[in-house]
Every structure is written in C-alpha cells, then in structure tokens.
Amino acid sequence: MPSSKLKQFGLVMTGVVAGVMISLNFSANADKTALAPLPVEELRAFADVFNAIKQGYVEPVDDKKLVTHAISGMLSGLDPHSAYLDAEAFKDLQVGTQGEFGGLGIEVGMEDGFVKVVSPIEDTPAFRAGVKAGDLIVKLDDTPVKGMSLNDAVKRMRGKPKTDITLTIMRKGEVRPVIVTLTREVIKVQSVKSKVVEPGYGYLRVAQFQENTASSVVTHLQKLAKDGELKGLVLDLRNDPGGLLHGAVGVAAAFLPVNTLVVSTDGRTEDAKREFRASSDDYLRGSRDDFLRALPKWARDVPMVVLVNGGSASASEIVAGALQDHKRAVIMGTQSFGKGSVQTILPLNNTTAIKLTTARYYTPSGRSIQAKGIEPDIVVEESTNGSAKRIREADLDGHLGNDRDPEAERKAREAQDAQGADEDEAAQAARFEQAGKDDYQLGQAINLLKGLQIVQNKNNP
C-alpha cells in the first residue's frame, strides 16, 4: 500500500479521535486530552488487507468505500448504539430530532446480521400493520438484509412518501415468514399528547424526547388545568424510545424542585463526567426564554403516577429514575428497556459524523440502569393476561454491562421471564390504544391516584 494512503488513513483515525465534540447531549473541546499514539502494528495489518483487496478483489473497489466500511465496522463492533453516520444518515438524525422524517415508523437495531425491531412508533405505517417489537426483518422487497449495515437497511426503508416496500419478517412463534407491504409516509412524531381522563385527573403522554418536548409539556399542563388544578396526573412514558438528553432534563425539571439533581454521567474523559440538574443552564439549549416560568404552580406538587414498560428507554428512563429516586412519583407498569449509555455525535467534516458511546448515566441515587432498566414501584401488567415480552438492552449483541450491579442482566431476564403466562395471548391483548378505554395500566394508575387523594384528604381535613 502506498505510504500516502496509509497517511490518509492515519489522518482519518486522528480525525475520529480529535474531532470537536458537538453532541446531541453536550459539547466539549477536543484538545483537553492528548491523542493516544497510533498502533503501528495493527495499522500495518490494516494496510496489508487494504492492499490485498485493492490488488486481488474480483472487481475494482473505491478507496473511499473501503475506508468508510472500515470505520463503520470499527464502530458497530463496539456496542449496539455506536455507528458511522454518512451524509444521509447524519442529516436524517438531525431531522429526526425535530420530529419529522420519511419512512415506516420503527425503531430498529441489528442482531445476527438482521434488522431487529426495537419498537414500532405509534400511529405509523409499521404500527398499523402490526409490526412488533422483536421482529427480525430478513428481506426488504427482494433484497436479503444479511450482509447489509444498519445504515444501508434504514436507507432502503426510508424513501418518498406514497411508495411501497415489502418486509419479510421472522417472528417468534410463527412457522412461516410474515410478509407485510407498507406504504411510506412522512413520519411526524407528535412528542406530547394530553387529555383529561375524568374530572380532576390528567393524562400526559411523552412519545419521544425532541428539541421542544419540555416546552410542549408546559403547554399541555396549562391546558389540562384550564378548568382548575388537578387532583392527580399520569405521566405516560410507555414505548418512549428516548431522544435528547436536555429534553429529558427539562421534563423532569417540570416536576422537581429547582436545582434538583436529575441525572449524572460518567465516562473516561472529563467532559463525560457531568451532573444535570433541574436548572435552566442544563435544560435550555440555544434558547433565552425559560419555558418553565409559565409552569402551573401545582405541577411540582400534584400526586403523580409514571407508567413505564419494556419499550421505555434511555431518556424516558432518566425521567422515571429521577422521579422515583426523589420520591416525586409512583412508578407503575413493567420493567423498562435498560439503555443507560450516552451517545455523542462527533462530526468528521461538514456532512458525516460518528455516533460514539462516551458515558454511562446514573439516576440521582447513583443507580445504573444499563442492561437492567427501571424497576416499577408497583408492577402492573399491560393487560389482565400479562404483558407482551419485548426485546431489551440485555438482549442486544455486544451491549455494555452494568458497572454497578453485576447481577443486573440476570435480574432483568428473570423479570422478563416472569411476566405473562402466555406470550401470544399477552401480546395480542397488549395491542391496545394507549389512553383508550381498554388501557388497563392507565385505569390502575387512576385508581391509585384516587386512593392517594383519599389518604391526602384524611391527613388534611
């Protein structure tokens, strides 16, 4: 391999290490830590492979393609959440945090070379077609998924609205593949929804943590109380896959005293060691207007129940963990997903970037939920038949371990094995409309709030 190409690869590697850390979560200067020396022997082996492909592969291969695949492989081999973002993927990520993108409406990961559905997003083509968490997508139209990168598979699933794509799915319990044809739509994720369930009791649903989620929560709280203060509030974080860290901090801050610790992060660099509090410095980003000034006064005192399940991940677990640790709310439902790691976006140039796991996060009491999840204060299954078993962080290949609870994975698996007597029956029963008339968990949450109200009235005649 010519020395110029080896030098070029070295520069790419240096860029990965030294790129300015402009994150969806926090920013830092890259010059705070010295660059580690490049591993000469390992790079020589890479150069030998590079040269062998250039000289002997059956067809000519572009240098850029080889280096791009090498970078992608380095990252995908670390853990399920680190990835290389080409220009299109980087743009999609930025657009997605604003709440609108084109596609089918599923959160996905990779397992054994196939695309695995983590969770369908409600009110999207995938959700309406019955795509389920845990499904393995093995073919996209007539193209096998095996051998594709996750980014390539996502690109194929996204496309122009009103165009069709056929998914071939392997599903546990099904003898034959499940084949569904979906019509792509512009996916608009409405981050926050709310309604008055019955007089005095409000329902607040956060579907995903986006740029303006926390400010939307304040707006919805104002609407819920237009006829007077609430006696109880249900915060629904079920099937919320997460999103922006500062959005989670802002939502938690709406219900906690000012400057209360919400979450801390810890990693190898000084910039990864941080505390995030219920303070405008931590939940405002690029905005001078503190939306929590318009927060109804009752919001920080109203009795609360937070609903979680196996689809509640990352940012939603941060909020649930903070409210649980500070005894601000009762957590109800089933054990959450267990994603306790922080991903930072490091641009390589103006169009591409890497998404790198840089820290673990911890609840205010110091708990790590990585590969474990949030354990509800009160376990309530999704229906009287039980809960559908879902894929969790501990089920993902190459996941990070829990550094503060070595038994976390065993406990999480035991909790999952214990839920639901009949998986197929439970899964069918669990496909209810959230906040609809058949929402068993919401009904139990309202019953609990009424009980808390009775106790409160007895203590304060």
Automatic annotation (TrEMBL):
The keyword Aminoacyl-tRNA synthetase does not apply. Residues 90-158 form the PDZ domain. The keyword Hydrolase applies. Residues 393-435 are annotated as: Disordered. One of its GO terms (cellular component) is outer membrane-bounded periplasmic space. GO terms for molecular function: endopeptidase activity; serine-type peptidase activity. Transmembrane segments: none annotated. GO terms for biological process: proteolysis; signal transduction. Residues 393-416 have a biased composition (Basic and acidic residues). Signal peptide: none annotated. Keywords: Hydrolase, Protease, Serine protease. NCBIfam families: prc. Belongs to the peptidase S41A family. This is Peptidase S41. It comes from Parazoarcus communis. The lineage of its organism: Bacteria, Pseudomonadati, Pseudomonadota, Betaproteobacteria, Rhodocyclales.
